[in-house]
Design brief:
The protein is α/β, with parallel strands linked by helices and 147 residues long. Helices cover 48% and strands 18% of the residues. It has helices at residues 2-12, 29-37, 67-84, 97-101, 117-123, 126-145; strands spanning 44-50, 60-64, 88-93, 106-113. The protein is globular and about 40 Å long.
């Protein structure tokens, strides 16, 4: 739902969007990377919701693995926090497969913790998922304006 909301927003702003999957089916991580690496002048955004055994942990975070991804991650993260007004877990370096193996600026967004009851309740509401999508879209637009 969040990814579809984001895709709709980006298309409405005139961007060409390719989704590595558009339904509830599995696409291997390698296939996601292969699809993305075929594209030029693009960015890669992976959207997730987090989980930990520590039920009190909360907040949004955006991961990157390259310097170019770092700039995108910082802009998306600040826009996410501005839109959602939730805990800022910051933009962070990570070696997740999809962001490590893509050749374009890549980020992985964690939109909160399903293991936290309060955040899980927010995730169930359309306004929160809409805020996540809008925050990512805002950050992407800010990134585009910088280049």
């Amino acid at each position: 739902d969040t990814a579809q909301r984001l895709a709709r927003k980006l298309r409405q702003s005139g961007l060409h969007v390719i989704e590595t999957r558009s339904g509830d089916y599995f696409v291997t991580l390698d296939n996601r990377v292969t699809i993305s690496n075929r594209l030029k002048d693009s960015i890669f955004v992976s959207i997730h919701y987090n989980y930990t055994w520590k039920q009190q942990v909360s907040g949004l975070e955006t991961f990157y693995s390259t310097e170019e991804g770092k700039r995108l991650a910082q802009l998306v993260q600040s826009s996410l926090i501005r839109r959602t007004r939730t805990v800022d877990r910051s933009a962070k370096y990570a070696r997740f497969y999809v962001i490590r193996n893509t050749t374009l600026p890549s980020i992985l967004v964690e939109g909160g913790f399903v293991s936290n009851a309060e955040e899980r309740d927010r995730m169930k509401s359309g306004w929160f998922r809409e805020s996540i999508a809008q925050g990512i879209a805002d950050g992407i637009q800010r990134y585009r304006r910088g280049y």
